[in-house]
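Q: Joint fold for the lines below.
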Amino acid sequence: MWDYTDKVLELFYDPKNQGEIEETGEAGVKVATGEIGSIACGDALRLHLKVEVESDKILDARFQTFGCTSAIASSSALTEMVKGLTLDEALKVSNKDIADYLGGLPEAKMHCSVMGQEALEAAIYNYRGIPLATHDDDDEGALVCSCFGISESKIRRVILENHLTDAEQVTNYVKAGGGCGSCLANIDDIIRSVQQEYASPALNNYGVQVATEIVTSKQRSLTNVQKIALIQKVLDEEVRPVLIADGGDVELYDVEGDRVKVVLQGACGSCSSSTATLKIAIEARLQDRVSKSLVVEAV
Amino acid sequence: MQNNCIYLDNNATTKVDPEVIEVMLPYLTDYYGNPSSMHTFGGQVGKAVRTAREQLAAILGADESEIVYTSCGTEGDNAAIRAALLAQPEKRHIVTTQVEHPAVLNVCKQLETQGYSVTYLSVNHQGQLDLDELEASLTGNTALVTIMYANNETGTIFPIEQIGLRVKEYGAIFHVDAVQAVGKIPLNMKTSTVDMLTLSGHKLHGPKGIGALYIRRGVRFRPFMIGGHQERGRRAGTENVPAIIALGKAAELELLHLEEATAKERKLRDRLEQTLLATIPDCVVNGDVTQRLPNTTNIGFKYIEGEAILLLLNKYGICASSGSACTSGSLEPSHVLRAMGLPYTTLHGSIRFSLCRYTTEAEIDRVIEVMPSIVERLRALSPFKNDDAGWLQGQEQALAHR
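A: Joint structure:
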């Protein structure tokens, strides 16, 4: 039996913002489109964003969804959530935000919220002219789930972003392992690897010291100097060791308000997964350790 | 909702006939004796169990001694497969099909890990078997051929007797999962090539938790449930007496109504199917439309997804079923429809309507009335509109190898 919240049912029975947005040539306005999912997997979403060029603001959002109740409700929720946001603000919308907007989704349907977040990201990257091949880290790395075509990098990302701890959760979020099931053991290995990576002894040695400063920082507002020092410290002690281990590196270039500008170096500089590195390995860590409002950009 | 629903999911389970409940109830209250007891109190229950066995044997054209009660269809399938293998330990090959119920498929998959080889016969676009492929798969090492009588999703009926003739040439045991067939098509085990046959009570207006296995006299059978001497030593455990009484009555009523009920169901099913096909563009019937159960239609509504259809049908109080991934525990769509090679555009939006003798003309009219608007509404949301769409076409081609 379906176990959907009233909000899910409301947006399924009466979806908001369904349909397309066509490019009309209106001055100062552009349309961005993002497509994600597939007919084979049983759900697909095409998201349309009408963007005011000068302000980067999303004026309108519409969707076309092939999928189940949750997929349709998640798509509709997403369009409601991003209207009025700038593209940078919209990029911060996570799959968890979509699920929360709906009052929750059944665990087995969390992949519908992930699809929404991915379509949003695809639309914004398309709009910004970032070629698909250089931002779609999901095509990189070993293919783990051949039934649904899910790569290791995508699995790692969903584990990190949603703090997943077992293979069943990974299946619920990205479908990997939901077909023949032969990759479930590999998914367990990836989970263990991600957990070890983010709790390595080298980091823990530094972590104690950084944590002390975080506790201090949360008790009072940081001055600019303190904020920059703490960002530098977190980068040096928690982020760079991980990147260096993969042949890459990062350098702090500047901090303007909440915008943290960094230079990706080594393997990270040329890696097609650099966007994920920025968002997951660096931005999420700085948001957690220093301030939730920080946005990391590569220069 | 429960009392007013239009129930078109009878291949999943059926309403228990009121007459069945009536005969069953005393065995939950006054007549609670153990049928194996020697005293009169138990003996009268044992007599009722024998009567029920006769009633059940009648619908199969079998002898009452050839009936073994089980707890469900799954147990019947498991028992038959394992018994056939235990009885022929020198043989290590099994033949089945890709479209069996999980109660057969998953047992076969497990047996593969235990050193058995299994041939999974393919089906064509209509869900039918290729008898030449069957013949080619049989060897002297084949212990068991286990094939369903009628498919639960599409209603496609396999040529069981033709299959059986081939199986017998190779000396293998022939088991048939007839859970969907009993009560829907006439059966006569006396003239059949079938060695063992599974049925389930709740598919024929009996209660859940009771099934039976027909075992042809003389077929070697090694039970996997061992204990007391119930069921002639073939299935140990105190009998589920009320359910057995109920199954006997349900079988009697099914046999009584068989001709009239199936004619009515076929007529209503055909009207439903033909009207939906005529009024809704881009939909197709899945399965063999000539060799098919009279109560079942499986229709693929292209470009939309089954769970969404079901939820909208549910809003109108209509209960049906879907082969879409989102309605199952798995994330994969129906293995039956996939084995038939249906395109993803069709199989994700496939809906099964299964009727019974209680289905009315007014109920079918209601489905005919609401279904076009449901499909139209979901198609308005869908990014897929036709088979030429670049996005869709590319994906179908890329996935063709899967």
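Q: Anything notable?
A: The interface with chain B takes residues 2, 12-13, 15, 18-19, 35, 38-46, 63-72, 109, 147-148, 171, 175, 178-179 of chain A (CB under 8 Å). Residues 224-245 of chain A form the longest helix (22 residues).
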